[in-house]
């Protein structure tokens, strides 16, 4: 051990980089493959994996070379790249530093993805109106993923952090390989038959398009669509889109994000409830203060402070009205009396009794009818003569009409 030289990791990476950089073949090579894990950095550099059916290699294309591209690279695209193989010393990862890129056709997997996506979309599996709402307060969350992957760890960690009271039910499933689609579909069916979960999270961690391909299979898509329980898809990273994402009721960019969407935060709800409680108490205090002020105001009213004062005021008003009423009645009686006296005086002036006092008399028959002409009586008729102080009863002995002399009239009666 003492005779052996000890190298640092940096020394090893630097040495391997130097060896690769000296290789004239690796300094300028053309490589054909399918783009996967494509990512465009804000700096303008392109990061992706170039792969075939059996292997993959990391690639980077700097912004100075990206400007020369006449197409937009994307996942699933078959390309021919020219560049140099070298080592990124910090991570010890070898990769191709791409100088040129030419399109070599769309990958087989990408074509299959697009074909199935078109067919299922035409059937209506992606329609928004067919998607079920995610329950806001689930009691149990069913999880379909690998029991040993990073996804389940992330989901459990986020779920327990947000709300440890919500039950998590894991149904283990293969998420990669030939048997994965069947395993995922059976897990979804099984959790639906179990019926205890309020929402399902179906997914896995990141990987290449081949790694994620199980979630692009029609069997998985139809199982998600047939699920009576709402399904949240959580496949790969944010840039990865699968058929499961389109057909699920809600797509989460990552498994951790799926847990964030499915599990309501206990602290957030406690905070919301506390805020509501505080607001409610403030409103109650405000209302109590308002009605208390009203009560004090009512208690301070005169009716409660001096209840008899209102009675006294009413009595005073009653006295005033009574006084006015008496005055009005007396005035009316006085007016009526004056008017009556005037009428009496008028009647007395016109009364025939006054004429009788001057020596005249009134002759009437037995029926009280005044006899004003000798034509009204005949011999032996019974007549009554009204004097100023009594009545004389007499019989007509003779009724003789006088001849008018000197335009004077005279009546002669014999008693």
Automatic annotation (TrEMBL):
<dbReference type="InterPro" id="IPR025824">
    <property type="entry name" value="OB-fold_nuc-bd_dom"/>
</dbReference>
<feature type="domain" description="Exonuclease VII large subunit C-terminal">
    <location>
        <begin position="125"/>
        <end position="339"/>
    </location>
</feature>
<dbReference type="InterPro" id="IPR012340">
    <property type="entry name" value="NA-bd_OB-fold"/>
</dbReference>
<comment type="similarity">
    <text>Belongs to the XseA family.</text>
</comment>
<dbReference type="InterPro" id="IPR003753">
    <property type="entry name" value="Exonuc_VII_L"/>
</dbReference>
<comment type="subunit">
    <text>Heterooligomer composed of large and small subunits.</text>
</comment>
<feature type="domain" description="OB-fold nucleic acid binding">
    <location>
        <begin position="7"/>
        <end position="102"/>
    </location>
</feature>
<keyword id="KW-0269">Exonuclease</keyword>
<keyword id="KW-0540">Nuclease</keyword>
<dbReference type="Pfam" id="PF13742">
    <property type="entry name" value="tRNA_anti_2"/>
</dbReference>
<dbReference type="Pfam" id="PF02601">
    <property type="entry name" value="Exonuc_VII_L"/>
</dbReference>
<dbReference type="GO" id="GO:0008855">
    <property type="term" value="F:exodeoxyribonuclease VII activity"/>
</dbReference>
<keyword id="KW-0378">Hydrolase</keyword>
<comment type="function">
    <text>Bidirectionally degrades single-stranded DNA into large acid-insoluble oligonucleotides, which are then degraded further into small acid-soluble oligonucleotides.</text>
</comment>
<dbReference type="InterPro" id="IPR020579">
    <property type="entry name" value="Exonuc_VII_lsu_C"/>
</dbReference>
<keyword id="KW-0963">Cytoplasm</keyword>
<protein>
    <recommendedName>
        <fullName>Exodeoxyribonuclease 7 large subunit</fullName>
        <ecNumber>3.1.11.6</ecNumber>
    </recommendedName>
</protein>
């Amino acid at each position: 051990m003492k005779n052996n030289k000890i190298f640092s990791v940096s020394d090893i990476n630097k040495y391997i980089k130097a060896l690769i950089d000296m290789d004239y073949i690796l300094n300028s090579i053309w490589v054909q493959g399918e783009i996967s894990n494509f990512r465009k950095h804000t700096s303008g550099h392109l990061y992706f994996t170039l792969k075939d059916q059996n292997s993959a290699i990391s690639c980077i294309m700097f912004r100075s070379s990206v400007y020369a591209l006449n197409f937009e690279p994307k996942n699933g695209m078959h390309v021919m790249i020219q560049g140099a193989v070298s080592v990124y010393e910090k991570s010890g990862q070898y990769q191709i530093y791409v100088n040129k890129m030419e399109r070599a056709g769309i990958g087989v997997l990408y074509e299959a993805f697009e074909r199935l996506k078109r067919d299922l979309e035409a059937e209506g599996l992606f329609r928004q109106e067919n998607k079920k709402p995610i329950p806001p307060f689930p009691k149990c969350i069913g999880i379909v993923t690998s029991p040993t992957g990073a996804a389940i760890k992330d989901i459990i960690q986020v779920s327990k952090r947000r709300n440890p009271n919500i039950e998590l039910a894991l149904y283990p499933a293969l998420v990669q390989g030939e048997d994965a689609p069947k395993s995922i579909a059976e897990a979804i069916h099984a959790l639906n038959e179990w019926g205890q979960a309020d929402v399902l999270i179906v997914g896995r961690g990141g990987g290449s398009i081949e790694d994620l391909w199980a979630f692009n299979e029609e069997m998985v898509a139809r199982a998600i669509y047939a699920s009576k329980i709402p399904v949240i898809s959580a496949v790969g990273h944010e840039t990865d889109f699968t058929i499961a994402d389109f057909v699920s009721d809600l797509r989460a960019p990552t498994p951790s994000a799926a847990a964030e969407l499915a599990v309501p935060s206990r602290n957030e709800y406690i905070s919301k409830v506390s805020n509501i409680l505080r607001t409610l108490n403030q409103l109650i205090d405000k209302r109590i203060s308002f009605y208390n002020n009203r009560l004090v105001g009512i208690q301070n009213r005169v009716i409660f402070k001096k209840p008899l004062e209102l009675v006294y005021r009413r009595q005073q008003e009653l006295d005033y009205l009574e006084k006015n009423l008496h005055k009005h009645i007396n005035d009316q009686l006085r007016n009526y009396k004056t008017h009556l006296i005037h009428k009496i005086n008028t009647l007395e002036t016109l009364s025939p009794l006054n004429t009788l006092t001057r020596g005249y008399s009134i002759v009437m028959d037995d029926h009280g009818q005044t006899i004003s002409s000798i034509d009204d009586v005949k011999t032996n008729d019974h007549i009554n003569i009204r004097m100023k102080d009594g009545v004389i009863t007499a019989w007509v002995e003779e009724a003789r009409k006088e001849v008018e002399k000197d335009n004077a009239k005279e009546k002669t009666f014999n008693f």
